[in-house]
């Protein structure tokens, strides 16, 4: 999908510290915050009939170089998105499937 998507959204953020240098959980708050934003982006897209997926690149330095992203910023994800193809099939969840995956007050 990433190669044929009509649009790509590259989500970047400014970390307080590098993940490998983090001393406390608090140091990772910006990473958690950016992923909350990504979730809301995907929900907003789907609400409008546009679909996307997250792609977490391994080689972010190459992407930063190509897109001229400043070194102090980090690439969280790339979201290829667009309208679904006419041949696409969306499998709806039925109540039985949901109940087998939903656990209330206990595991299984």
Report on the structure:
- It is a single chain.
- The chain is α+β, with helices and mostly antiparallel strands.
- It is built from 3 helices and 3 strands, in the order E-H-E-H-E-H.
- The longest helix is centred in the middle third of the chain and has 19 residues, at 29-47.
- It is flat and about 50 Å long.
SSE pattern, N- to C-terminal: EHEHEH
Radius of gyration: 18 Å
Beta-strand portion reads 15-25%
Which structural class should the secondary elements be placed in? alpha+beta
The DSSP helix count reads: 3
Report the uncertain regions: none
**Tell me about the biggest sheet?**
3 strands, antiparallel
Helix content: 25-40%
Rough shape? flat
**Side-by-side strand order of the widest sheet:** 1-3-2
Query: How would you state the average pLDDT, rounded?
Result: 84
Distance between the termini: 35 Å
Number of strands: 3
Can you describe this structure in just a few lines?
Helices cover 31% and strands 19% of the residues. By secondary structure, the protein is of the alpha+beta class.
Topology summary:
Blueprint: E1 7-13, H1 29-47, E2 50-52, H2 60-67, E3 74-83, H3 95-101
Antiparallel strand pairs: 1-3, 2-3
């Amino acid at each position: 999908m990433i190669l044929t998507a009509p649009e790509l959204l590259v989500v970047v953020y400014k970390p307080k510290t590098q993940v490998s240098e983090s001393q406390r959980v608090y140091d990772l708050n910006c990473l958690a915050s950016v992923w909350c934003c990504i979730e809301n982006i995907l929900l907003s897209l789907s609400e409008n009939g546009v679909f996307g997926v997250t792609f977490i690149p391994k080689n972010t330095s190459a992407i930063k170089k190509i897109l001229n992203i400043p070194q102090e910023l980090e690439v969280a994800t790339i979201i290829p998105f667009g309208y679904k193809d006419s041949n696409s099939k969306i499998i709806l969840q039925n109540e039985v499937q949901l109940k087998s995956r939903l656990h209330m007050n206990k595991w299984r």
